Amino acid sequence: MRSNKDSNFYFKSQPGIYNISVVAQDSIFCSNISNTILAYINAPLPLPNVGCGNKTVTSVEYSWGSLIGATSYQVSLDSGSNWIAPSGSSGLSHVVSGLPINGLSKIWVRALDNNICGPSPVSISTCQAANCPRLPVTITADTKACVSDTGKASVTVAMPNDGKVYTVSINNNPPAKPGKYTLKFGTSSGVYNVSVKVIDSSNLVCSFDTLLQITNYDAPSGNVQISSSHSNGIYCHYDSIINLKVRKLVGVDSIIFAKLDLQTLIQTQLKSSASDTILITNTNILNAGNNMITVREKNNLSGCYKSSAILITKVDKIQRGFTHSVSNPFGNVLFTDTTLKAIGTHVWDFGDGSKDSVSLNPTHQYLSNGVFVVSLIDKELHGCYDTAWKAITISKVGVSEFTKSEINMYPIPAHNTLHIDLSNSTKGVYTITDMLGKTVLTNTFTSNSFDILLDGISKGYYFINIHTEEETLVRKLMLE
Hints:
Among the domains are: about 140-215, Immunoglobulins (Immunoglobulin-like); about 225-315, Immunoglobulin-like, CATH 2.60.40.10; about 320-480, Immunoglobulins (Immunoglobulin-like, Sandwich). The chain is built from no helices and 39 strands. It has strands spanning about 15-20, 25, 30-35, 35-40, 50-55, 60-65, 70-75, 95, 105-110, 125-130, 140, 145, 150-160, 165-170, 180-185, 190-200, 205-215, 225-230, 235, 240-250, 255-260, 265, 275-280, 290-300, 305-315, 320-325, 330-335, 345-350, 365, 370-380, 385-395, 400, 405-410, 415-420, 430-435, 440-445, 450-455, 460-465, 470-480.
């Protein structure tokens, strides 16, 4: 460096110890060298190399290596506004705690020495706390509930059988074991949030948290009308088919099933059109007396339903029967109705061509001897009827029964089919004759219970003669 006056000299050099002297020179180039001084140039402290060390779900450890010339270190958690000593025992690490799970943190680190160069440049580092291991939770839950079912919905929490103890809290309720939980949202429709929290007892910090949404739907806004083909829904025991008409109104998407007394399934899926028919072809499923037929209407969007019902009445068989006794030896016979039911009307046919009687317990005089088939048609208060038959013999000594067997025939009047039940005989021949004695149908039977097809036979009165090995049974038959 050259200068023609007093000067301060600055120069850059690598850290180290340097000899420095000054040479003075005049105009004729005479020179003089000054004394030599030693100059010490110190190296500034380098940038600390900070990295992420051990971590937990709520803490992070920062660490750095030792720097030559550094006497100590400082850390800051607020961008250098405040500096503190590191928490590590060696001064080369610092733990930041209280972090959220998987949370981020940032630290500022600098090194200090005792020379005039001052602290090192500041190193900035960011680390992230550990994440919780995902618990092996399996959740199955309803997404829909129905007001008609008190808003009932289920949430099932399943955990593996891995020897750990898990607890479940639904909507911040006290912890319980994993399993199936039934929730009820009541009769208010809307969307409900359901919180589910699962905790592993061996790691209380980490939990599984999720939020479910369940919609509580109103029932269908419409109704279903059910009507019976019979007046007042009353059916007799001999009715072979019960016909119910179902009419769907606005607000109902489909009709999903019909049940008898909510137990016996009659029909699983009705048409989605405006109307349909429920046919009960097996009337034996009906109980004697009142039967409730329930139809469930469904809203396809929500799956919610409500029920409509109709009451139908099945009138059971009348325990019909009558007795007879001779009041004098001249053909006067007293008939007594022994039917065990409240009866609306009684019609007696004495089998001799005389006028029918509607008396409860009539007396009839026969004008000739012979075999006469006496019938009693009892009609109960609902309009259902049954007929009792008996063949009697009129002679000088009075009246005697002609048959040993009990015979049960229905329906009376008959239509297309007549069913016969015999108490004793199991095989024989039956013959149907008209009132003039002409045979209109004859056939054999091999069971004490059988059906006779009456197709092609005109309406009117007939006799049916049943011949077995033991006896001959004669009954009067009416066809409609």
